Amino acid sequence: MEHERLKQLEEMEQNYEHAVPEKVTDDIAYYRTLLTNVVMIGAPDQDWVLIDTSLKRYQQRIIHACEERYGNKPPKAIILTHGHFDHSGSARKLAEYWNVPIYVHEKEMDYVTGKESYPPGDPTVGGGIISILSVIFPTQPEHLEKFVQPLPSDGSVPFLEDWHYIETPGHSKGHISFFREKDRVLIAGDAISTEKPESSWSILFPIQHIYGPPAYFTEDWVEAGNSVKKIAELKPSIVIAGHGLPMDGEEMQEELEELADNFIEKAIPKHRKYH
Ligand SMILES: [Zn+2]
Ligand SMILES: [Zn+2]
């Protein structure tokens, strides 16, 4: 039954005419694919950058959503929060189409250039279809070597002057989030999520709360907990995570602090393969 539902959702998404961006602020929008958000930074009349690229075969839908906002003006670059298949899947096709560079954190480079594989997903955490599928999800590295380069090591983000990136390892070694001081917007990637990603129901009926990183691929829970502390200390006003709808306001901040203070009880699955 869960397979049926997933198939229905996939079919719905085949029709990319429906792929439209949702505005978060004047110069930030996101497009929610089946599993993962992609984020567009830049006002429609400005230069812009795409953060993350969802699964493989999403390039048409992503291009459509981006063209709705920017016409046929390509982004200056594609930047990935990390290299997992649900964030880097369409990166190569999009980089080819737009002829633009891809950036990742230096520590993520090996995973997107065929040198290193992620550990296999941990099917023992959480329930639902996503955890089951995690066993067959690809952990084979993406081959982005023709396009990809490491981000500058000083935390600056190419083409985005008022943003910097923050190292938020744990979910993966070179995982990063993006932050802008002036309005305290945080693009969290998988450092946290705003829906319970292990539950298949959340794809259709997302309940907006702050949760820990998607458990099935998180490699190091101690590091992941430190990363949540780091982003809670930023006191973001808006959070856009890789999975789930954006959140803002006091309740979100309280939940984020709560998660940071009680990470072991709240985020770490009782049964797990990785420690
Ligand atoms: Zn991930
Ligand atoms: Zn993810």
UniProtKB/TrEMBL annotation:
GO molecular function, one term: hydrolase activity
Gene3D superfamilies the UniProt entry points to: Ribonuclease Z/Hydroxyacylglutathione hydrolase-like
Domain of life: Bacteria
InterPro entries listed in its UniProt record: Metallo-B-lactamas, NDM-1-like, RibonucZ/Hydroxyglut_hydro
Keywords of the record: Hydrolase
Domain Metallo-beta-lactamase per the UniProt entry, residue ranges: 35-243
Record bears the keyword Hydrolase: yes
PANTHER family with a match to the protein in the record: METALLO-BETA-LACTAMASE DOMAIN-CONTAINING, METALLO-BETA-LACTAMASE DOMAIN-CONTAINING PROTEIN
Designated name of the protein: MBL fold metallo-hydrolase
Source lineage: Bacteria, Bacillati, Bacillota, Bacilli, Bacillales
